[in-house]
Structures are given as C-alpha cells and as structure tokens.
C-alpha cells in the first residue's frame, strides 16, 4: 500500500513537472482609461480575480460633478467580466474636496483603499478606509481620522504609507505650517490584519527642517527624511514611534533623497537612494549612491551605482524585495515625469508619468551593492517579479515594430549570478510575449498552486485577460 502511494505521488509530480503549457483568453470588457487610474489585478486565485481602479477627477476638470469612485471588477477563471462593484466616495456637499490616497491587498479576501475629504467652510479634514471583501462582494467604509484645517488652501498634505511586509499602514497628516507656526504632524499607524490602530499621536518637528521622504518599517515605526529649510544643504533622519522620537546619525557627506524600509532577521533596515555631496565628488559621480543602514546598530554602508545617471534619486520605486540568507535583492525602477505643452483645447495638461528600465540590485552580508543588473529596456511600464525557487521571472518591456509599439518579454534570472535568459512561448503561431502579454506589472499575477501566470492587457477602451499555465518551471 505504501509503495502504491509513493508510486502515485511520483506519477503526479512527474505529470505536474512536465505539464503542457497552455494559454486561455478571457472575453474583452470595456473601461474608461481616461478616468480610471491605479489599475491593479488583485485577490487572484484559480477561480476568480479582481481588477481594482480608482477615479479621482474633480468636477471643474470636466465641467461636471466630481468623479470620485472606487471600482472592483470581478473576473471568472479565464478573466471574463462577471460583476462590477462601485464605491462612490464623494460627499456631494458643495465645496467639499476629495482625494484618493492609495490602496493595497490585505490578504486573500480583503483589499483596502484610503480616501480623504476636506471642507474649508467647516475647517475639517477626514480620512476614510474602504475595505472590499470578495467573500461579501461589497465595500465597507469607515472614518478613521479627523483633523482641523485652517482653510481649503491651508489643509496640509495627507500621505498613506504601507510597510514592506504588508502588515501595516500609516496615515501621516502633514499640517500646513510656516515660519510663524509649529511644524505639527498627526500620525496613525494601523494593523491591516485587524484594521485596528497600533499607535496614534501628534508629533512636533523642528521648523528649521522640512519633510522630504517618509517610510514605514516592518515594526510599525515611521522614519522621516528632513531637509534643511532655505539654501543650506543639510539632511537628517528622524525615527518616530509610539515611544520613540530620535535622530538616526549618518555621514553628512551623503545626501539621501528617497527612503525605503525592510527587515532582515527581524531587524529593521533602511535603504536610502541619494548622492554624495558635490563638494567631495566630481560630475556624474555625485548621483546614484545607495546607503544601506542598520537601524539597530547605526552602521551605514554607501555604494555607488549608475541608477540615476544625471537625475536625482527621489523618484526611485522599489518594486520587490527578496531576502535570501544574508543577501538582499531589490528590483527598482525610476519614475520620470514630463509635462506636455499647453494647447488651445487643454491649457493645463496633466503631467505624464513613466517608469525607466527595471534594475536588479543585490546587497551582500555587509550591505554593499555587489551586483547591479538591468532587467531590460523600457517604454514606461512597471515590471513584475515572480520568485520561483532560485529563479526570478521578470517582465521587461521594449519597443517593437516600425511605430514603437510596446512589446513585452519574460526574462529568467538565476538568483546567485543574476545572469538573464530570455524565454518565449509560441501561441497562435506567434511569440506570446511580443503579441499578447504586454501588461503593466500591476496587472500581472502569479497563482503558484496551479502554476498560472495572469496578464491583464489594457488598451484605451478595453481590457482582456490572458492566462498562461505551467510556464514557471
């Protein structure tokens, strides 16, 4: 009997290992690409998946009532549209303004989005959480913070932060301040697993520095990067928690511009993207430096990279962090903002955001950058990284055809040496990745228990799902 069980298990494993790659297609469905933003493929398993998007258009921009909605589209196993759940988060009171602040998947059932509304007439600002449950098929809305403001134009700025481990979210209300007022901020840190506060307090920071970057650690602490007000080139890192408020010392010849927190062996670390002081370096070497900072010991290791080129580092986005033993790998991209020229039909065009090529950056045990590898060229899309054993499957984008249409490829990197190998898949007589799979990284998901890659391809009018089974080896 035992031999039969073992034989059966071996046969099953063999069939799974050599299962044939197949592609299934969902039916196209329509979207409004001009209105919908922050598209994400979320809550995915082999039975259903969901497409989230937000509409955050003020009425004056379209000479109509404000468009303020959260949308969750339910898709079936192949990716065809089953249902659409809509949350209108606009308070229709005249003069009330709103903002979509950010969102993230909590677990296999829940997805959370944050919005704010502020009303100068009543001198108030309010932050809301909207939790979608796939089990209930509905959004549940709750007010989680209320703040006083001076006026609509002096309402401050609200930031939403998520920890790298996905367990915590923070609401950071940076109040309006000037030389005559204190620099006061309100901080609420939440446990996303229970949707309850971890800590909530008012913090006062010195007026001689202003906030430049924020990050939330995996232990629910806030680190604030602050720059000296005025012309002085001086920076400081400040750690804030329910029980702490202290500076984190580092070499004053280093200029941090963007913060990112992660953990290794239960210890908190920072990676700061920045540059060295121009007084001690020459030309382009002032850019592209990375500081690996141990928040427990205060040890800092600075490495040079060619990440930024001639640009600064404040728009670097960390796509994924992987910790293997003593090594840390980060997949990063840098955002580029262009501002179109005004026209007679559009005097105030919206800025256009795009992402540069993805880069893989590996730190050794000491925190030095030892490998720095391009994941491919780019046409502005976000990459997606799937970790499968010692392999990394990474989407990369490049122009193809005479008109530079967006193409797509999958590359496989060995974690140890980061040597790339481009992989292909024939489908309908063509390379699937060049003709079907050009999805943004936020619209790609991997379901490991059925070895299924999901690509949600979006055009200006419609969306279509492509599912690839047994591609990950």
Quick synopsis:
Residues 1-19 form the signal peptide. InterPro entries: Quino_amine_DH_bsu (IPR011044). This protein has 473 residues and is mainly beta.
Word description of this protein:
Keywords: Signal. Residues 1-19 form the signal peptide. This protein has three helices and 36 strands. It has a single domain (19-378, 421-469), classed as Methylamine Dehydrogenase, Chain H (7 Propeller). It is globular. Strand 28 (385-388) and strand 29 form a beta hairpin. The chain is mainly beta and 473 residues long.
Principal-axis shape: globular
Percent helix: under 10%
Q: What's the overall average pLDDT, rounded? A: 86
SS-based class: mainly beta
The radius of gyration over CA amounts to 24 Å
| Largest sheet properties | 5 strands, antiparallel
- Uncertain segments are 1-18, 279-286
Total helix count? 3
DSSP E strands, number: 36
- Tell me which CATH architecture applies here: 7 Propeller
| Strand fraction | over 45%
Signal peptide: 1-19
Keywords: Signal
């Amino acid at each position: 009997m035992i031999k039969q069980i073992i034989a059966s298990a071996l046969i099953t494993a063999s069939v799974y290992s050599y299962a044939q790659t197949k592609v299934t297609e969902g039916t196209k469905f329509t979207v409004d690409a001009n209105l919908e933003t922050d598209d994400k493929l979320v809550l995915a398993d082999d039975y259903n998946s969901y497409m989230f998007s937000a509409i955050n258009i003020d009425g004056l921009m379209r000479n109509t009532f404000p468009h303020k909605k959260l949308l969750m589209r339910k898709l079936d196993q192949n990716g065809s549209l089953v249902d659409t759940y809509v949350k209108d988060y606009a308070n229709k009171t005249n003069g009330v303004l709103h903002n979509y602040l950010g969102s993230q998947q909590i677990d296999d059932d829940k997805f959370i989005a944050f919005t704010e509304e502020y009303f100068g007439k009543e001198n108030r600002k309010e932050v809301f959480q909207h939790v979608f449950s796939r089990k209930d098929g509905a959004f549940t809305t709750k007010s989680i913070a209320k703040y006083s403001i001076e006026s609509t134009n002096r309402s401050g700025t609200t930031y939403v932060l998520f920890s790298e481990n996905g367990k915590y979210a923070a609401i950071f209300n940076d109040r309006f301040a000037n030389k005559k007022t204190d620099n006061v901020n309100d901080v609420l840190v939440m446990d996303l697993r229970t949707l309850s506060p971890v800590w909530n307090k008012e913090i006062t920071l010195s007026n001689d520095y202003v906030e430049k970057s924020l990050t939330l650690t995996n232990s629910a602490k806030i680190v604030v990067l602050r720059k000296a007000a005025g012309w002085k080139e001086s920076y400081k890192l400040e750690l804030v928690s329910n029980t702490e408020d202290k500076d984190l010392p580092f070499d004053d010849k280093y200029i941090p511009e963007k913060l990112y927190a992660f953990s290794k062996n239960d210890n908190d670390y920072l990676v700061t993207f920045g540059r060295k002081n121009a007084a001690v370096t020459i030309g382009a070497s002032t850019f592209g430096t990375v500081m690996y900072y141990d928040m427990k010991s205060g040890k800092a290791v600075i490495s040079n990279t060619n990440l930024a080129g001639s640009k600064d580092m404040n728009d670097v986005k960390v796509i994924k962090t992987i910790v293997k033993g003593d090594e840390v790998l980060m997949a990063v991209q840098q955002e580029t903002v262009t501002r179109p020229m005004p026209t007679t039909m559009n005097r105030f065009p919206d800025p256009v955001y795009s992402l540069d090529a993805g880069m893989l950056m590996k730190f050794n045990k000491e925190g030095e950058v030892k490998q720095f590898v391009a994941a491919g060229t780019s046409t502005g899309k976000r990459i997606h990284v799937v970790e499968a054993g010692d392999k990394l499957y990474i989407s990369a984008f490049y122009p193809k055809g005479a008109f530079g249409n967006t193409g797509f490829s999958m590359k496989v990197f060995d974690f140890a040496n980061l040597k790339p190998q481009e992989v292909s898949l024939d489908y309908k007589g063509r390379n699937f990745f060049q003709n079907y799979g050009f999805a943004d990284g936020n619209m790609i998901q991997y379901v490991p228990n059925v070895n299924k890659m999901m690509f949600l391809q979006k055009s200006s009018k419609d969306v279509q799902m492509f599912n690839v089974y047994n591609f990950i080896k």
